[in-house]
Write a structure and sequence with these properties.
The chain is α/β, with parallel strands linked by helices and about 425 residues long. It has one domain: Rossmann fold (3-Layer(aba) Sandwich), CATH 3.40.50.1820. The chain is about 25% helix and about 20% strand. The protein has 11 helices and 9 strands. A 9-stranded mixed sheet has the order 1-2-3-5-4-6-7-8-9, with helices on both faces. Strand 1 (about 80-90) and strand 2 (about 95-105) form a beta hairpin. The two termini are about 40 Å apart.
């Protein structure tokens, strides 16, 4: 009953936020043309992996930085790591738990975020790790009292017993259905998570809080038109967590998989695009601004997302509100930036807002980049059937029954995929 109540509550919020006409009809998808993946913006053909890596890939990465996710500011921030908790044989003996503070500092000040790391207790040697962010706090992914409560901003949610923008013990484990910790550990994987609000609280205050102010130049009070928004700084922070994982002898740092759901699925894709150290990338129901093609204008559109969440992308991206046809890129190009690393895109049947068809097509149209590496790619433009995953060494995809969520079914596919292509 609680899950049903949460779903109804979130649906009511969605209706109030997005009260405008939205297209879900394939017959009303506008005619559109995707930018050629293997032709540069100056018309040069790309014919091999070397030219891709030296010319086209940097060009695509740069246009996403400047016109959508935002450029990283030049103001430098140092990152130090402090192990604040190290407990063995927790969760009935199956897990070792660590909590690591990521301490960001420069002449502007200091800011701290916490990485929670679970490792399988009975596995010898370094293990591969799934790394991602969560929405309400590290303590919400599992009810264990060993997990510290965060002191930073939290979004009020009466169903999760979160009020006055603070958390307490009552919200322990409220999102455990999305994070089957013991199940992941039992397959020989570790799990690292960061509460995204520790990095940047997810509301529009023109970036006066969180980590952003450390990057401002003297006299600067907000990012410039092309500098990053929340997704950009969340993605950058995942790379800083990877910096720590590379120092941990119990982690196989060549096999870290970045994972994200919804807006954090957009974040995982952007993190994987920029940081080629990530061995694999998972996008779960990421929709507009993530895996879904923008030019289709199905479900959430560029204008809707920019109006509802003006802090997610850079200000330049608003130029494409109701103007997707002028985009010099689309999300198949974002997926291509993962090549030759494997990427998994997942959708849900009832999540029309995220445009499942558009999510599949972005992976399908990313194929030319992977073919430069002689890799197997999706063989048909037709989406797979419900609950029938289609996996390849390049782009894998499933659409499951159900709604916008992360389920045990999703994790079962991700682990099967990782066992085959990463582990």
């Amino acid at each position: 009953m609680r899950k049903i109540a949460i779903y109804i509550w979130m649906s009511l919020i969605s209706v109030s936020l997005y009260s405008q006409e939205v297209n879900y009809d394939e017959n009303k998808v506008p005619d559109f043309q995707l930018p050629e993946l293997l032709t540069t913006f100056h018309g040069k053909s790309i014919n091999d992996a070397s030219a891709w890596e030296s010319v086209r890939r940097p060009e695509i990465l740069n246009v996403f930085r400047e016109q959508m996710y935002g450029t990283n500011p030049v103001h430098q921030v140092e990152v130090d790591f402090k192990l604040v908790k190290n407990k063995e044989k927790v969760l009935d003996g199956v897990a070792d738990l660590k909590e690591i503070d990521l301490i960001f500092s420069n002449d502007q000040g200091k800011h701290t975020a916490r990485l929670l790391l679970f490792l399988p207790a009975h596995v010898e040697g370094p293990v591969p790790v799934f790394l991602g962010m969560n929405f309400y706090g590290n303590h919400t992914i599992h009810p264990s009292a060993s997990i510290s409560l965060h002191q930073s901003w939290a979004r009020d949610n009466p169903l999760f017993l979160i009020s006055d923008q603070k958390v307490d013990d009552r919200s322990r484990g409220v999102r455990s259905s999305r994070w089957p910790v013991e199940y992941i550990l039992s397959h020989g994987y570790g799990l690292g998570v960061i509460y995204y609000g520790d990095i940047d609280p997810d509301y529009d205050d023109e970036f006066q809080n969180g980590l952003h102010p450390l990057f401002y130049k003297k006299g600067q009070t907000k990012p410039t038109e092309k500098e990053w928004g929340s997704i950009g700084i969340w993605a950058w922070s995942l790379s800083r967590a990877l910096d720590y994982l590379e120092t941990d002898a119990k982690v196989d740092h060549d096999k870290v998989i970045v994972f994200g759901h919804s807006r954090l699925g957009k974040t995982s894709l952007w993190a994987g695009a920029q940081d080629q150290r990530f061995a694999g990338i998972i996008s779960n129901n990421s929709g507009c601004g993530g895996a879904a093609l923008s030019k289709r204008k199905v479900g959430e559109t560029v204008k809707i997302i920019n109006n509802a969440f003006p802090h997610w992308f850079n200000d330049y991206f608003t130029r494409f509100n109701n103007n997707e046809e002028e985009l010099p890129f689309d999300q198949h190009m974002l997926i291509s930036l993962m090549a030759p690393r494997p990427v998994y895109i997942a959708s849900a049947k009832d999540d029309e807002w995220a445009d499942p068809r558009g999510e599949y097509l972005s992976g399908y149209y990313a194929a030319p980049a992977y073919k430069l590496y002689n890799m197997q790619t999706p063989s048909t433009i037709k989406s797979p059937a419900i609950n029938q995953p289609r996996m390849t060494e390049s782009v894998s995809y499933h659409i499951r029954s159900g709604r916008h969520d992360v389920t045990r079914y999703d994790w079962a596919q991700y682990i099967r995929w990782a066992d085959k292509y990463i582990k």
